[in-house]
Amino acid sequence: MRIHFTLTDLARTRIAGRPSPLAVTTFSAFRLVQRAGTPGLDGWRRRVRAGLAAPAPGAGAGLPPAREAYFAQIAPLDPAHPVPRFLRPHIGLPTLDEELERLLSIPRQALRADLEYVGRHRPLPRWTRDLADGDQDTAERLAAGVRDYHRVAVAPYWRTLASLLAADRAERTRQLGDGGIEQVLRSLGPRMRWRPPVLDVQTRAEIEYDYHLGGRGLLLAPGAFSSYVPCDPDDEQPTLYYEVVADAGRHSLLGTLGGPHDGLAALLGHSRAAVLEVIADGVTTGQLARRVGLSQASASEHATVLRRAGLVVTRRSGRSSHHTLTALGSELLLHAAAAAAPAP
């Protein structure tokens, strides 16, 4: 696939904000069935399949087949297939529940247009007609299926995944400041090659094609489990999900239940390690205090120590202080996640 940029596209290309738990969940479903090139995920696949067959908390039986099927039938089975936009939001919210609430409130017209486009490229189950018609019960069954699957496949690893994605975003933001958007495009991974004014993307699709952004620019979103390239010509601004792979390889994305925090805690202490992880998102002192559960004075003190160590940079804007990771801070977080991973 060749993504064509104009000067306007380059000017409008930007880095996505916080990662979307729903998008990560959707792309993980593809990796559950596609084994090619990902032997490091075999252990994860076994745990997920066992978890889906086991009784849910408070339930006397396994995962309800009908509820699981609602998500399994609409999730992508091939990276060349279009993914419904409502399952891959480019604006992430803090929790999956918040994103599912947003999904349930999507206008009927937007749902119908989304499903009609996907249906022109791959078969969809019959119940999606009810979803397109705005049937609330169908939408709630889909949301329940996503929630059940997420509980087993993503939730135990979310802290690790969120930390890696946030650290990568911090590194891309630094690249953007140091060398502009072209430096970012040159470093998106081995499957993507920047040849101005075209980004060549290696895909599994048998047919090569050209995609013209047409002045809309591109939203670059770090992704887990799989990359995903834009394909919908009606996207207001296409989103390119590029797969983040830490130094130890793809299996490092699913390293441990605790994630990099546990390894960093031995070096920095539990509170300071948590502070470093949260700062990867780019936060004010007040936001940092709320998310870590500290007073503002304590959060500010920890940020100051990390800043003096060269891991954090703080910029004042009016009465607020905004904290982000330095290149060293990003590398520390990425290496901690990789070191936490078991041997493949």
Enumerate the strands of the largest sheet in spatial order, edge to edge or round the barrel: 3-4-1-5
Oligomer: single chain
Dominant shape = globular
**Proportion of β residues?**
5-15%
Structural class: alpha/beta
Number of helices: 15
* Radius of gyration from CA coordinates: 20 Å
- Measured between the Cα atoms of the first and last residue, the distance is 31 Å
Mean pLDDT: 81
N-to-C series of helices and strands: EHEHHHHHHHHHEEEEEHHEHHEEH
List how many beta strands DSSP finds. Answer: 10
> Which blocks of ≥5 consecutive residues have pLDDT under 50?
57-66, 247-252, 254-260
Description:
- This protein is of the alpha/beta class and 344 residues long.
- Among the domains are: 2-16 and 160-243, no CATH class; 255-339, Winged helix-like DNA-binding domain superfamily/Winged helix DNA-binding domain (Arc Repressor Mutant, subunit A, Orthogonal Bundle), CATH 1.10.10.
- The protein has 15 helices and ten strands.
- It has helices spanning 7-12, 21-33, 42-53, 65-72, 96-104, 108-119, 127-132, 136-153, 158-179, 181-185, 260-268, 270-279, 285-292, 296-308, 327-339; strands spanning 2-4, 14-15, 192-195, 198-201, 210-212, 219-223, 239-243, 283-284, 312-317, 320-325.
- Strands 3-4-1-5 form a four-stranded mixed β-sheet, with no helix packed on it. The chain has a three-stranded parallel β-sheet with strand order 2-6-7.
- It starts with a strand and ends in a 5-residue tail after the last helix.
